[in-house]
């Protein structure tokens, strides 16, 4: 008995005849609903503080390859959104430390790039003469970043902590209590100059600078652009001839500082709230409730 003719599936031929390319199962299919949700979330970065803060934290935890992929997607999706570029890029810039990616983000932001000018400073002095300061820098819309430091200008930095993105109504204000010290409003430039002295003193001792300072190298450069600090020396080169960003800030490691002040052996070193962004956390909360 002769078997009947086998059934032949000629759908592939039909697809080819009609110009339809069969789907390759190895290639992922992007659900249009996922794309729509992603773009809606990106648009929310312009107005939703929690979304912007979440974006900064998520991006900050990604690998280099994943960060590059995120930026690649923004190149495609950014122009389709009815929000300014700074809204979708500023949260990423707040936590990015790679020079190449920072340059890429700043180029994408363009003329709307935020400027550190116009920031505010709070400062207090401990009974032993150490300074505790908070530098609050506007980012975009109603967001700010905060650099906290405890330092001695002629000895170095005790601890530093960086908060990349806060709502402006959560930023510290005059009267905030840190390590038992009340902070008061202070002009920004004198605080920056004191920190420059502390940075150089820290390096001369051979100590490693707090990683939190790496995130704010641009703030130091901008504030010191027109400041004369001829008395500060880096080797044989006056600091006035060298951008502060070159003061080894590109090689900082995210490691804690151990308090090595023999005059205060009972001061306990504090554990960081975020080991990637902080070198030690203040003892007292200073944000507005």
Task: Describe it.
There is one protein chain. The chain is of the alpha+beta class and 289 residues long. It folds into two domains: 31-112, no CATH class; 120-251, no CATH class. It contains eight helices and nine strands. The protein has helices at 11-17, 32-44, 49-61, 64-77, 85-93, 99-109, 188-204, 217-223; strands at residues 120-125, 131-138, 143-152, 156-167, 177-178, 181-182, 184-186, 233-234, 237-238. The strands form three sheets. A five-stranded antiparallel β-sheet has the order 4-3-2-1-7. It has a two-stranded antiparallel ribbon with strand order 5-6. Strands 8-9 form a two-stranded antiparallel sheet. A hairpin with a 2-residue loop joins β5 and β6. α3 (49-61) crosses α5 and α5 runs antiparallel to α6 (99-109). The protein is elongated. The protein starts with 10 loop residues before the first helix and ends in a 51-residue tail after the last strand. Mean pLDDT is 72; it is low at 11-23 and 222-281.
Short key terms for the protein model shown above:
16% strand; 8 helices; 289 residues; single chain; two-stranded antiparallel sheet; alpha+beta
Question: How do you describe this structure in short?
Answer:
This protein is an alpha+beta fold and 289 residues long. The chain is built from eight helices and nine strands.
How is the topology of this model organized?
Blueprint: H1 11-17, H2 32-44, H3 49-61, H4 64-77, H5 85-93, H6 99-109, E1 120-125, E2 131-138, E3 143-152, E4 156-167, E5 177-178, E6 181-182, E7 184-186, H7 188-204, H8 217-223, E8 233-234, E9 237-238
Antiparallel strand pairs: 1-2, 1-7, 2-3, 3-4, 5-6, 8-9
Helix pairs in contact: 3-5, 5-6
Biased composition (Acidic residues): 1-14
Region (Disordered): 1-28, 263-289
Biased composition (Basic and acidic residues): 15-26, 263-272
């Amino acid at each position: 008995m002769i078997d009947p003719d086998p059934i032949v599936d000629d759908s592939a031929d039909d697809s080819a005849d009609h110009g339809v390319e069969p789907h390759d199962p190895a290639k992922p299919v992007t659900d249009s609903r996922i794309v729509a949700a992603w773009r809606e979330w990106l648009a929310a970065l312009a107005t939703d503080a929690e979304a912007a803060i979440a974006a900064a934290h998520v991006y900050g935890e990604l690998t280099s390859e994943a960060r590059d992929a995120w930026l690649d997607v923004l190149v495609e999706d950014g122009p389709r959104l009815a929000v300014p570029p700074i809204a979708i890029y500023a949260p990423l810039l707040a936590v990015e430390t790679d020079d190449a990616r920072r340059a890429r983000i700043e180029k994408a932001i363009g003329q709307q790039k935020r400027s550190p000018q116009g920031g505010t400073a709070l400062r207090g002095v401990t009974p032993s003469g150490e300074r505790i300061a908070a530098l609050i820098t506007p980012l975009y819309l109603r967001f700010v970043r905060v650099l906290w430091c405890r330092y001695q200008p002629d000895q170095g930095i005790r601890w530093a902590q960086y908060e990349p993105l806060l709502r402006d109504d959560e930023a510290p204000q005059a009267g905030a209590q840190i390590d038992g010290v009340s902070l008061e409003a202070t002009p920004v430039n004198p605080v920056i100059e004191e920190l420059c002295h502390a940075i150089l003193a820290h390096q001369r001792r051979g100590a490693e600078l707090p990683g939190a300072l790496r995130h704010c190298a641009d703030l130091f450069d901008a504030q010191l652009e027109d400041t004369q600090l001829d008395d500060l020396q880096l080797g044989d080169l006056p600091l006035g001839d060298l951008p502060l960003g070159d003061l080894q800030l590109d090689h900082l490691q995210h490691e804690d500082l151990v308090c090595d002040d023999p005059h205060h052996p009972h001061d306990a070193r504090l554990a960081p709230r975020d080991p990637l962004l902080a070198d030690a956390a203040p003892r007292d909360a200073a944000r507005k409730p």
